[in-house]
Amino acid sequence: MDEPGLKNIADRVLAASAADQTEVLIFGSHSALTRFANSYIHQNVARTGFEVSVRAVIGKKIGIAATNILSDESLKAVAEKAVTLARHQKENEDFRSLPGPAPLPQAHAYSQRTADCTPEQRASVVATICDAARREGVTAAGAFKTGVSEIAVANSLGVFAYNRDTHASLNTTMMSATSSGYASRLSIDIDDIDGTALAAEAIDKCLRSTDPIAIDPGEYEVILEDYAVTDILDFFAYLSFGAQAYQEKRSFMTDHLGEKVMGENITIWDDGLSPETIANPFDFEGVPRQRVDFIVGGVAKGIVYDTYYAGKEGKTSTGHALPAAVTFGPVPSNMFLAAGNASKEEMLASVERGIWVSRFWYTRPVHPLRVIVTGMTRDGTFLIEKGKITAPVRNLRFTQSYLDAMNQVELIGGETRLHEAIAGVSRVPALKIRSWAFTGATEF
Amino acid sequence: MRELVMRALDTARARGAGYADVRVVGRKSESITVRNRNVEALTADETMGFGVRVLVDGYWGFAGSNRMTLEEADQAAAEAVRIAKASARAGGPRADLGPPEVHQDAYRTAFAKDPFAVSLDDKIALLIVVNEQMMKVKSIVMAESNLYYQRENKTFASTEGSYIEQELIETGCGIEATAVGDGEVQKRSYPNSVGRHQGTEGWEFVERYDLPGNALRVAEEAAALLTAKPCPSGVTTIILDGSQLALQVHESCGHAIELDRVLGTEAAYAGTSFLTVDKLGVLQYGSGVVNLTADATIPGGLGTFGYDDEGVPAQSTPIVREGVFLGYLMSRETAAMLGMRSNGTMRAADWNHIPLIRMTNVNLEPGSWRLEDLIADTDDGLYMETNRSWSIDDRRLNFQFGTELAREIKNGKLGDLVKNATYTGITPQFWGSCDAVCNRDHWVVWGTPNCGKGQPEQVAHTGHGAAPARFRNIQVGLVR
Predict the structure, then answer these.
(1) Would an 8 Å CB–CB cutoff place B178 in contact with chain A?
(2) pLDDT digits (tens, 9 = 90+) for B24-70
(3) Which of A44, A107, A333, B428 is deepest in the core (most CB within 10 A)?
(4) CA of B445, closest CA in chain A: separation in Å?
(5) DSSP 3-state assignment of B24?
(6) B299 preceded by cis ω (within 30°)?
(7) Distance between the two ends of chain A, CA-based, in angstroms?
(8) For B110-176, where are the alpha helices, taking DSSP H only?
(9) How far is A206 from chain B (nearest CA, A)?
């Protein structure tokens, strides 16, 4: 659709609502994904869809209804359903108001080339990757996803916000009988996605990790590639940097703003308008996104808010609301971990005996307050001895406090890369960390 | 409906599809979440759309849309065919679905009380009461309770001549209490963790679990955990409660027996499996008391239905008998690769996704023990309840689970509370160490409504019948 089309839907819903305040959130998307494994395409899909969600407010009572049917009758019905639900509600004394209008910044996250991508283009890139795998005697698996997303937020206080963006993401895992290697890229522009380079990176990792040796779990120095580091930011976003967890004292940030909580070399922030992210000018309430510093030089500085949780502290939203039906509270969407100036070669040379980790897998929180997480390494784990990689090792389980790890970062990579994140994207460098707790090993 | 479905099949055929199927899915759902006495989300969702899946010269294509018009049926079918033709560009084997599946039938979930017919006021009142019970306990910072129920109407038709209509009802509920203090955050959940427990039943499901009668206990346990002993580190005997065991089955057996993973098509994302085809019928997966069955026919199970999303009838399949690995979850295509016939496990999360091999109800069959006797028979160990964390490697071997609560077992009796309990192991060794499973009196088909797999990721609803069971020589306590 387009901006006038979504505005028309929003206006029809607002006109049909008898609530004191009404919010309309509209998602539209056309996305396609070409998936390959065993070096051929085994799944190839496309879908088009819209969803309209209505939040109706009567006094301090709130009801939410959603539909993906865009007929006049359906839009009127969804508005009425939201009002009916609100009428059955109990008063929520913590609710203040929907947000009012504010000047919206512009974002530039759209590429016509990506929007126009065809199944033949995706298949051609995948064929390149599969051919490279065959030449090297390994097998390729992965997915190439492209799409256009639209979002519009409108409310009866005068908010109307519209944005559209594109995304192109490609990942591949190359496999031999005893090893694997992974690489991925994410951009708004399909022209940034180089399938040949991606295949080469994953093949190199796969070939270097054949016939891994077993090593004993224990405390090791580690070099985490950016693929692994993005997981650390995900858990801070999920467990620690949102106002809900903060206010309920479930976050390590609670009662520690202004204090040093991480190493002095660590700076983490969220900035939805940076040209180095997939820019994202407003949240799901239509509130403009603000830059929020979480950690500056190791010191806890701030957290993100939506309108509801900001209201509980007498503050204003930072523009980090999730859709109203989600009860998780606000979360960061465009996180950054500040780069350092080390190259991966320098990091490697600094390790006496340690582990090179390409990627984490199946990570889950074990202790939310201390941000203790368990998970596995995957797709390229190596032993480092006296500054050199000496052998591939079998995958390891870790059980490690990410918070403690951020107090033990010795070197930070000079380059950062964009990755998909828990509620958006993150841009992170590689890290060298003094000590990491590997608590088990697996059989491959 | 029939006109749109037939139009899509006709267009797909006319454009060159050798096989096509169409699924139309309409889903109505409602959810209520009460958090700290506030109804934070009261939502009603309604979605409808269709997906066209085609094979052109043995290569797959799929397109879906929520515009329910004949023109859109043409457009989606044509797009699916174009995509399938593009799939051929990377080469590879041509898909073979094996023998035709032709069924014309209708199926409806059997339920006693329509969850949509219960008044909204009564539902909200129930959750408010539950929250108030939990908030009576001083250290509780977050009390949350929720209800979810959905009605899904699915129509499946294929160019082989199938036309199947299904109406599936699900109802779920859950409560959580989170306590903070003494440098700890501790949570207790009921009846299951990770949001809620769910089944293909009506409102009777919620009534059976008596949320108000359990709320205070749940909150008190969360508060007590703040000052409980930390989990010791070492090797010991553990008894897992049914809900934790259900997740153990889900992760270390259910995902491992998905034949698409075994054959490599989930390799880049969900991973593969250690249960490769050379192990079928020969591998000692567990001890002699371990019997597992995949059964999509159990009344009330969250993985229960009439037909899968390839139009194959729901079935019961032996997976492990007396410890020996015997069976996979299969699609038509993967079954044909092994010269077998699908056991009906292909399911899509919605109209806009393709079906994947998903767990139905993968059950650990009950044994003969009463739980009291099993505890009395255990000299030293831990009784562990309700999942808190879960992680397993991409071939489903090395796992680590944490539970919300554990209790010491000393000389055949339950003792002190233990917090932050974890256990870890390697799948076949772990199941090999199982020496006792409790009987049918303790057996529940636990619903797991949050199983992720595939790209774009799909969330499936699966079930797992389980009763408490005992495992010897297990590593516990790896959180420092």
Answers:
(1) yes
(2) 999 999 999 999 988 888 999 999 999 999 999 999 999 999 999 99
(3) A44
(4) 25
(5) strand
(6) no
(7) 48
(8) 120-135
(9) 13
Contact A145 B455 (CB under 8 A): yes
Structure tokens at B175: 């409560």
Report, as an integer, the average pLDDT of B78-83.
98
CB of B391 within 8 Å of any CB in chain A?
yes
Taking the Cβ of residue A214 and every Cβ of chain B, the question of whether any pair is shorter than 8 Å is answered with no
Say if residue B479's pLDDT is above 80: no
Tens-place pLDDT, residues B5-30: 999 999 999 999 999 999 999 999 99
Nearest-by-Cβ selection for B89 from A127, A142, A249: A127
Q: At A179, is the secondary structure helix, strand, or coil? A: coil
Compute the distance between CA of residue B286 and CA of residue B429 in angstroms, rounded to an integer: 7
pLDDT digits (tens, 9 = 90+) for A396-439: 999 999 999 999 999 999 999 999 998 899 999 999 999 999 99
CB contact under 8 A, A444 and B397: yes
Chain A positions in Cβ-Cβ contact with residue B128 (cut-off 8 Å): 90
Instruction: Provide the pLDDT for residue B395.
Output: 98
Residue B306 and residue B304: Cα distance in Å, rounded?
Answer: 7
Element (H, E) at A404: helix A402-405
pLDDT of residue B109: 98
The DSSP code sequence of A140-178 is EEEEEEEEEEEEEEEETTS-EEEEEEEEEEEEEEEE-SS
pLDDT tens-digit series, residues B429-460: 999 999 999 999 999 999 999 999 999 999 99
**8 Å CB contact between B479 and B422:** yes
Could you read off the pLDDT of A174-203 as tens digits, one per residue? 999 999 999 999 999 999 999 999 999 999
CB atoms within 10 A of CB A396: 26
Please judge whether A42 and B265 are an interchain contact, meaning their C-beta atoms are less than 8 angstroms apart.
yes
Q: How far apart are CA B3 and CA A297, in angstroms?
A: 64
Q: How far apart are alpha carbons B131 and B143 in whole angstroms?
A: 6
Instruction: Provide ipTM, 2 decimals.
Output: 0.95
* Min Cα–Cα distance to chain B from A265, Å: 25
For chain A, positions 136-155, list CB contacts with chain B under 8 A: 139, 141-143, 145
A356 Cβ contact list (under 8 Å, min separation 6): A222, A223, A225, A348, A380, A381, A382, A383, A384, A389
Among candidates B425, B440, B438, B439, which has minimal Cα distance to B472? B425
Q: Which residues contact A427 (CB under 8 A, 6 or more apart)?
A: A276, A277, A335, A336, A337, A416, A417, A418, A419
Residue entry with tokens 């049926």 = B73
Tokens, residue B100 = 């035709």
The answer to whether the Cβ–Cβ distance between A67 and B47 falls below 8 Å is yes
